[in-house]
Amino acid sequence: MAKKNEVKSEKVVIRSQGREIWRRLTKNKGAMIGLAIIILLTILACTVDLFIDYDTQIAAIDAKHRFVDPCAEFPFGTDNMGRNLFIRVIYGTKYSLFIGVMGTVFACVVGITLGLLAGYYGSPVDDVIMRIIDIIQAIPAVMMGIVIVSALGASMTNLIIAIGIAGVPYLTRITRAAVLTVKNQEYIEAAKAVGLSEAAIMVKHILPNCVSPILVAATMQVAQVILAASSLSFLGLGVPVPSPEWGSLLSAGRAYIASHAYLCLYPGIAIVITVLAFNLFGDGFRDALDPKLRK
Amino acid sequence: MWRYIVKRILMLIPVVIGASLLVFCVMNLSKGDVVSVITAGADMTNEQIEAVREAMGLNRPLLVRYGEYLFGMLRGDFGKSAISNEPVLKLFFTRFPATVKLAIASSIVNIVLSIPLGIFSARHQGSVADNAAMVFALMGLSMPAFWLGLMLMVLFCVNLQWLPATGGGTDFKSIILPAVTMGIGMMATTTRTTRSAMLDVLRQDYLRTARAKGVPEKKVINLHALKNAMIPILTTVGTQLAKAFGGGAVIEMVFAYPGVGKLLLDAINNRDTTLACGCIVLQTTITVVVLLIVDILYAFVDPRVKAQYAKGGKKK
Amino acid sequence: METKNTVLDIENLSVEFHVDGEIAKSVTDVTIKLHEGTTLGLVGETGAGKTTTALAALNLIQCPPGVIKADKIEVCGNDMLHAKQHELEKIRGKDISMIFQDPMTSLNPVFDVGTQIQESILLHEKLSREEAWEKAMQMLELVGIPRERGHEYPHQFSGGMKQRVVIAISLACTPKVLIADEPTTALDVTIQAQVLEMMKELRDKYGTAMIMITHDLGIVAESCDYVAVMYAGRIIEYGTLDEIFNNTRHPYTEGLFNSLPNIHNRVGKLKPIPGMMPDPRSIPEGCAFADRCPYATDECRRTLPETLKVNDDHVVACLRYNEPDFMIERSRKNG
User: Which residues lie across from C42 on neighbouring strands?
Assistant: First the structure.
C-alpha cells in the first residue's frame, strides 16, 4: 500500500483506496450487519437522555412492581426494586458504549504514542518501551484491571483507565509494526531532507500510513474493552450503582439468579450483541483491507 | 537448543521483576491499606492504628519496602499474608492445584470442540455450515465468560438440575460447568486459528502427493494436514492455557471455585497487599513459563523449527 | 492393439472448473490408451490441460469446483470414475501413481523421508512396520540416496534429491502406471539428466507404463514411444514418436518444433509461436489454434476440426489436413 503512495500523489491514492476498501466492505454481510448495529447503538447512546429521565425512570424505586416477570408492560421484567429492566438496559447502552470507546481511545493514545516512538527511534528507546510492554502484557489483563481499580477506587474514569492500560500493549505493537514498514520509505527521507521536525514527520507522514491496521485494532479493542469492563463491573469494581451499566446490572441480578434468571439474561444479551457487532465489523474491515487473507 | 531455552528463561527474569514492581507499587498506592481492614470495627485511636502500621513496617518509603520484597522474592520468600499470617507461597500452592485442574479441563474442552470444528470449517470453506461455525465462534468471542457461566448454571443447575449449583469443591461434577464455560470462551479463538491454519495447509502440494499414494482422506486431513497446521493451533491453545492459569478469577468467583483467582480477589478485597502481590507475581511467572514451554514444543512438531534452534544455539 | 495389456484407458474425458459463475474448460474429449511397458509423452504449453488430464486419471480433481465427464477412466481394469473413495485409495499408489512437478512442495515437511516412503508401502502391501521400513530404505538406495538419510527431513535435501525421494515414493509399490508431471522442470539441467536416466532405468526394470508430461521435446525424443500433443484442452495430434517427429502433420506441433533452439544450426533464428493460448473460460468455437496458426482459413475459425487418421499409428485434428495438396512446411522439408 505504502509503495503506491510514494509514486503517485498521496491523497488521490488514499481516497481511491478508501473507496475500494469500502466497496469490499459493503460486500461483506457480517460487517454490514455489525456496522448497522454499531450505528444504531451509537444513536441510541447519544439520544437516550432525551426520552428517558434518569431520576424518575432509572433511579426511582417502585415497591409495587418488584420482580415482575417479562410481560407487555415490562418487556425484560423488573428488578428487586421494581425498576423496569428494559429501560435500564436501554439506558445502559450509554455507559457501556462510552466506556468501550473511551477505554479504546485511552489505549490508542498511549499505545500509538509509544508505538510511534519505539518504531521511529529504534534502539534504545524501542528496547525500553518494548520491555515495559512485555511486562504489562505478562500480567493477566483482568488482574491488571482489578489491581488498578482497587487501587484507584471504583469509578467510571478509573474503570476506563484500568481497562485502557490492558489494551496498550496490543496497540503499541500494531503501531510499531506499521511504523517499521513505512519508516524507511523514500518519502520519509525526503521529508527529513526538507528539514521537517521529527514530531511533524511522525504525525504528518508516518501516522497516516499506519491508519488502517490501527483502525482495525481499535475496532476490535472496543469489543475487548466492553467485555473487560463488564467483568470488572460484575466484580463490583465498575460503575457504582444505581447506574445501569450492563455489567453492574448482571452483578445486581446475580443474587436472584436462581429465581429470576431474566435479570441476568437480558443485560448479557445486550453485551453479546454489542460486542458481536464490533467484532463482526472489525473482522470484515480487516478482510477488506487485506483481501488475500480471505481467499 | 538448550542454549536457546536457557536464554529464554533468563529473559523472563526482568519481565517477572518488572511485573512485581508494577503490581507492588500500584497496590500500595491504594487508599486504605490492610491495617484499615484489620482495625475496622475495632475501637482504636488513630495513634494505636499508626502504631500497628509502624509495627508492620508500612510507614517506610515505598521503594525501601519493594527492595525488601524483591530481595525476599529472589530467595523464594514471598512474605506472609497480613490477614491469616500464613506464608504466601503456602496459601498459593494449596489453591494452585485447583486452578491447574480447571485450566487443563477447560483446555481439553477447548481442544475437543474447536479443532474438529475448525477443520470442518476449513474443508467446507464458504459453505453455509462454515459460515454458521464462524458466527458461532465469533459469538463465543463476544460473550462475557461469567455471563455464559451464569446462564449455564441457570440451565443445568436450576432448570434441569443435572449438576450441583455451587459445589465449592474440585470434584468432577463441580468442575464440569466452570471448565465448559472457560472452554467455550477459549474455543472461539482456537476454532478461528485452526480454520485459517488448515486453509493454508489444505492448498499445499504435499497433500496431493499423499492422496496420490493412496492415503485415506481421513488420514490426509488428520495426520498430513493437521500436523503441518499445528504450530499456530498449538500457539493458540497454549496461550489460552496460559491465560487460564492467570485469568480465571471471574469464572472461579461465579462458580465459587476454590482456585488461585478467588484467593487473589479475596486478598484484594482485604487489601492484603503481600498476598495479592505474591499471587499476581506467581501467576505471571507461571503464565510466561507456559508460553515458553509452548514455544519449545514447536520443535517437536516441526523439524524445521528444531533445525533453527540448533543453528541459533551453535552461533551463540 | 489387444485390450488385455491396456493399463490405462481414458475415453472422451472432459474436465471443467466452475468458478464464480464462469466455466473453464480445462480438458475436452481426451482419449488415451496406454499399454504395458510403453511410454507416452504428453506435450503442450503450460495450461494446455496436461496436468488436469493426469489428475483425472487418478480421479484426484477437486469436485467442486471440478466437473469430470468421461465415457471411461480405467486403470488396470478398475473403473476410476465410479469407484468409491476407499476403492480409489487402494488403486492410487498401488496400480497408478504420480510424480509431481515441483519436488520442493511435494514432500510433507513434518515427516522424515523414510516415513513418507514407508507409508505408501504400509498402505498397499501386507508388511510389518519394520519390513516396510526396510523396503523403503531399499527404494531410497535404488534412487541413489544412502539409507542413512532416511531419517532426515525434506528441508535437509536439495531439489534433485527431493525429486528422487518423490520418485521412490511413487515407485515403492511398483505401480503398473506412472504419471510423471514435468518431473525435471524444477531441477538444474545437470540434475535433470541424472533424474531422467534413473527414471528410464527404473521403468525398464519394473516394466512400468508411463505418461511423461513435459513441454520439452528433447525429453520426449529420448524417452517416449508415443506422443500426444495437447492444445487448449484437446489432443490435436497423436502418434508414435517416429510419426510425430518425422511426419509432423499439425501446424501447432510444427510450431513447437520451430521454437526449439537448434544445436546444429546456431545461426538460424528461433520461430516462437505468436500469440497466446486462448483463455479456458472462452475457447473459440472453431479450431482453438486458428488465431495463431499461419495456415488458418476462415473455415478454421468456424468449424471444430475432427480427429483424422493419417495412418494406423498417427491421428491429427486439423481441418486443412483434408485438403489434398495441403502440407505444412516441416513435412515439405522432411518429405
Answer: C213, C228
